[in-house]
């Protein structure tokens, strides 16, 4: 009987390898060869699922965003929902520094890669729309809070402040201007 292969699982394994490479070495280090070597798999397997480097990088980003959404469900309470939205990029626990590094690498890549820019832009617009909705239509305030949260997340990732201090600062901003 032929062996059954879970193609979604294989793609997810490749995504995880890509994220690890990005977190440690940056997007420039992602190649078919580096993925195969890192995962102990053949280049043929990588190419079977993703014919190009660009396809791999875009798929890994789309999967990353879907997993981030699952990992940070939006609560019913409006203030808590806003805090979840604003703090989900903070590098809190063992997996989040990797997530924050991957996200910021994709943000940087979006400056020069139109395909990545489209995916990142859609995610950022979605966050802005949700924040605007949670703030009763105040798009200016939503943009302000999102920009501040991005800055705090970057500072925490760069080691300029702790994730806890960044979260406290974001919470203070939200509570100071209800």
From TrEMBL:
One of its GO terms (molecular function) is DNA binding. It comes from the Bacteria. The keyword Signal does not apply. InterPro entries: BetI_C, Homeodomain-like_sf, HTH_TetR, Tet_transcr_reg_TetR-rel_C_sf. Coiled coil: none annotated. Residues 31-50 bind DNA. Gene3D superfamilies: Tetracycline Repressor, domain 2 (1.10.357.10). Residues 8-68 form the HTH tetR-type domain. Keywords: DNA-binding, Repressor, Transcription, Transcription regulation. The keyword Nuclease does not apply. This is TetR/AcrR family transcriptional regulator. It comes from Tsukamurella strandjordii. The lineage of its organism: Bacteria, Bacillati, Actinomycetota, Actinomycetes, Mycobacteriales.
């Amino acid at each position: 009987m032929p062996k059954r292969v879970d193609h979604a699982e294989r793609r997810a394994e490749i995504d995880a390898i890509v994220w690890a490479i990005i977190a440690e070495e940056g997007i420039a280090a992602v190649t078919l060869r580096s993925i195969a070597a890192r995962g102990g798999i053949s280049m043929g397997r990588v190419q079977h699922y993703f014919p190009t480097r660009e396809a791999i990088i875009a798929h890994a980003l789309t999967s990353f965003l879907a997993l981030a959404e699952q990992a940070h469900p939006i609560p019913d309470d409006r203030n808590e929902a806003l805090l979840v939205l604003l703090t989900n990029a903070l590098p809190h626990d063992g997996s989040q520094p990797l997530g924050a590094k991957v996200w910021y690498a994709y943000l940087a890549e979006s400056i020069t890669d139109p395909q990545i820019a489209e995916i990142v832009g859609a995610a950022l617009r979605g966050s802005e729309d949700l924040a605007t909705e949670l703030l009763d239509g105040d798009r200016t305030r939503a943009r302000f809070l999102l920009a501040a949260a991005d800055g705090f997340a970057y500072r925490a990732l760069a080691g300029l402040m702790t994730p806890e201090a960044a979260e406290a600062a974001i919470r203070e901003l939200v509570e100071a201007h209800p």
